[in-house]
Amino acid sequence: MAAASSCGFFPKASRCSPDVAIEAAQKFGVDLVQHRSRVICDAEAELADAIFVFDRRGVEACEARFPKLRSKVHLLGSLDPANPLEIEDPYGGSAEQFVECYARVRGILQGLLRSAMKDI
User: Fold this and answer.
1) What's the CA gap between 95 and 84, in Å, rounded?
2) Which of 18, 30, 55, 117 has the fewest C-beta atoms under 10 angstroms from its C-beta?
3) Cβ contacts of 102 within 8 Å, gap of 6 or more
4) Which residues, listed in sequence order, are joined to residue 16 by a DSSP beta bridge?
5) Mean pLDDT value of segment 10-35
């Protein structure tokens, strides 16, 4: 059974989503009002089959914190070869930047699901 979770490296958990992120997520039918950030922990990283990050900064942060897990770390954008390898983190940006990011991530995840369904 497959499972996914979302965590980050910013060393402060339980942060609320910015208002522009909440607004943008609503366009995708996602309610982020109650969402709180989580910091990746050692156990989650160890148990993960793969760790996907948006950009090289995320790769570097992950490899610095979990040097033995380098082979698990991948750029999410590598699953979307028609677009840039790195996905720009919209944090601090406009609602439009969040929408663009969410749309790209949704497209990548939909592609993964289509591919996984073929294997069933």
Assistant:
1) 20
2) 117
3) 24, 25, 27, 28, 30
4) 36
5) 96
